Batch of 3 targets.
Target 1
Amino acid sequence: MLEARALSKGYATGLWRSSVTPVFSDVSLHLVPGKTLGLVGPSGCGKSTLARVLLRLIPPDQGSLWFDGREITHLSGKSLLFFRRRVQFLSQHPHTFFNPAYTMKHSLLEALRLLGDGSPAATFNQLTAEASLAPLLEQMQLRPALLSRYPHQLSGGELQRLALCRALLPQPRVLILDEATSMLDVSVQSQILHLLKDLQVQRQLAYLFISHDHEVVRWMSDEVMSMSSTGSASLVALV
Ligand SMILES: Nc1ncnc2c1ncn2[C@@H]1O[C@H](COP(=O)(O)OP(=O)(O)OP(=O)(O)O)[C@@H](O)[C@H]1O
């Protein structure tokens, strides 16, 4: 479904941004419906940078990206919006997905208005949108009353579940999970990991699961890719 072919990426550095420090090179991967690719590697090896390239937030220096067999490396405009709906992101900082001045309901409806609910209808209907939140909240085991709160009035676990709701609203097919549970305590982490597994089966989602925790990666993943500090990547078996 989402495929990366021979990606390389570096960052411009130096006083005049005249030199490029390579981060990774020749990285290829394929995310498949209903399966999880785990991604591990030492701090600073480029896992989050790879996630940003896959999300089309920053361009690769070399290589190409493909979604459902179509090249998307240089997509822009409406076609890129379509891709943004299909490939969503969850990080270890769920508060960054929400404006602190808005209630959760406002933020979620705003996301629906901007990205749509995955259906072809282009119009946004407030009542339909509100109705579509209810089953999702129930699935996330969240009380509807939480929708009237602001981000700072929620626990880390509640906020992460609401960020997951937000990610699921446009009916994505791929979720990129960058340390998505690492800031949570062990019991909340376990609940969210189980929730992610259930969602994957129900919706046939493809996951890229980035984590430092090898035990969690092994439990979540069908295959595991390891990035090295020299910027190469290969499939590995975690023991
Ligand atoms: N915008 C940027 N400009 C310049 N260098 C950057 C930028 N973002 C990240 N880097 C550098 O690129 C390298 C890879 O960073 P990245 O965040 O992708 O690593 P990571 O594997 O996700 O690390 P961690 O596991 O600690 O989160 C690091 O050396 C980092 O300092």
Note: Strands lie at 2-13, 19-31, 36-40, 62-67, 70-71, 87-91, 174-178, 206-210, 223-227, 233-236.
Target 2
Amino acid sequence: MGLRVHEIFRSIQGESTRAGWPCVFVRLTGCNLRCTYCDTRYAYDRGEDMAVEDILERIAAWNCNLVEITGGEPLIQEETPVLAARLLERGKTVLLETNGSRNIGEVDERCVRIVDFKCPSSGESSANDYGNLERLSPRDEVKLVVADRSDYEFARDLYHRIRRRGVTSPVHFSPVFGILAPSRLAGWILSDGLQVRLNLQLHKFIWDPDARGV
Ligand SMILES: C[S@@+](CC[C@H](N)C(=O)[O-])C[C@H]1O[C@@H](n2cnc3c(N)ncnc32)[C@H](O)[C@@H]1O
Ligand SMILES: Nc1nc2[nH]cc(C(=O)O)c2c(=O)[nH]1
Ligand code: SF4
Ligand SMILES: [Mg+2]
């Protein structure tokens, strides 16, 4: 069995509450969605089939406590929860970046599940599994990627819904890179007094925004 892996690399974590920390990334191949703004289309195909043990060995080459499983969409591969569990067993802090369309309950709760529910301009918001709202633990995080004002209003409604349910997970609002100016999103957040975190993709400021493997 194993997993189809597009790339494994070490970089600076560019997003989430762990932004700024060195992090090893396992980018899995394939995605069930086609977001209009996707910056990782190159991971829709190709890659190498690897056994979980081989992936663990590659990760161990770096002395790094933080590991993120991303893609593509990690939860379309059956063995992703096994990889997360094995990394947790090794004492790693494990982040899993997922598009919100699959059941996050398949993945160990000790893993930080970063759930990116899709806003309308992605073209994929009908894929959101809102059952995941019930499955979020305080350790998990929600990320909402915003391209324009109507996405913002959708994200704001979802944020209020999350808090009304008593879910305390951090919520990030992230502008689509090169499409929505961070200052506009910042202005909307501040004028509505939302307690959300403005998430900028740090790696796109450190390196060329089109660079792979960073
Ligand atoms: C490439 S996806 C992989 C994980 C999963 N498929 C998902 O969508 O969450 C990683 C993150 O990058 C975000 N992303 C993709 N393209 C982006 C862009 N052009 N600007 C800002 N964020 C983007 C996605 O919304 C997601 O939060
Ligand atoms: N540096 C860096 N940080 C990231 N955080 C989430 C990423 C992703 O593509 O899921 C990502 C990425 O692609 N690069
Ligand atoms: S779900 Fe993630 S990887 Fe898939 S198309 Fe959307 S942003 Fe890209
Ligand atoms: Mg990325």
Note: The longest strand covers residues 3-12.
Target 3
Amino acid sequence: MNARIIDGKAISAAIKTEVAQRVHTLARQGITPGLAVVLVGEDPASQVYVRNKAAACEKAGLHSKVIRLASDTSEEALLDVVRELNNDASVHGILVQLPLPAQMNSSKVIETIAPAKDVDGFHISNAGLLMTGRPLVRPCTPYGIMKILESENTVVRGAEAVVVGASNIVGKPMALLLLAAGATVTLCNSKTRDLGAQTRRADILVVATGRPRMITGDMIKPGAIVIDVGINRQADGKLTGDVEFESACKVAGAITPVPGGVGPMTIAMLLVNTLEAAERCVHI
Ligand SMILES: Nc1nc(=O)c2c([nH]1)NC[C@@H]1CN(c3ccc(C(=O)N[C@@H](CCC(=O)O)C(=O)O)cc3)C=[N+]21
């Protein structure tokens, strides 16, 4: 058997087209959705992501600005920038690129962002709303994965879903979104005993560990849908996921590639979250 390769670029393009239409509708009411991305330091990977986000905004008709701060910026100076953006009516979404330099307390920075402008969905208030089943802003990567499942017509209700990796950014919100959609969810972490025994039960397997190729074909249930969140740069410069693609393809029913899978969806959902933050300004 050979897995169907899920085209995250195509799914994200369709979402971005829909965003562009809704941006056009808002424009008639005199509102242009605005995203502010704050980048502290010169991490080259972060620079690439930030450029991609800005380009995607421009293409969909959103306004975006990037605020670049030196890597030795103090936490208080960054908090001042965030507070200023909170008070800026032209800014509907604020994203502080992670990871932050060591002198910064990321939680404190995230908790300073106004929850309604927290388009990453990382603020404790958005995390709490998601946990209690009335989400406001959903984290972009898990939200994008739900859109992939929808686009693949995957039956989530009643399915066995296994999430590997329990981060606040991907694993935990992913588990909550799958649970809300009716899946039976197992959330694995780095201490999980016999990981393969867990992953082999999964109809839906989401892997977000940051460990290149750790999930191999023998750990996958035949016919499963496999979602690879990993983006690992190899020595040869190429990207690889957290799933060993070649062996996984022989067992899975469908699989997301890296690149071209989850990554583009994250950006598309960032646009959706920013658009919806702007739409909420009209409705209240
Ligand atoms: N506050 C915050 N929010 C984030 O959402 C956030 C962050 N910090 N820090 C870094 C990670 C990483 N991230 C990616 C987004 C898109 C791609 C993406 O579009 N990837 C393409 C190509 C990537 C390439 O070629 O380098 C793909 O997978 O096809 C990747 C990674 C968002 N992040």
Note: Residues 131 and 179 are 10 Å apart (CA to CA).
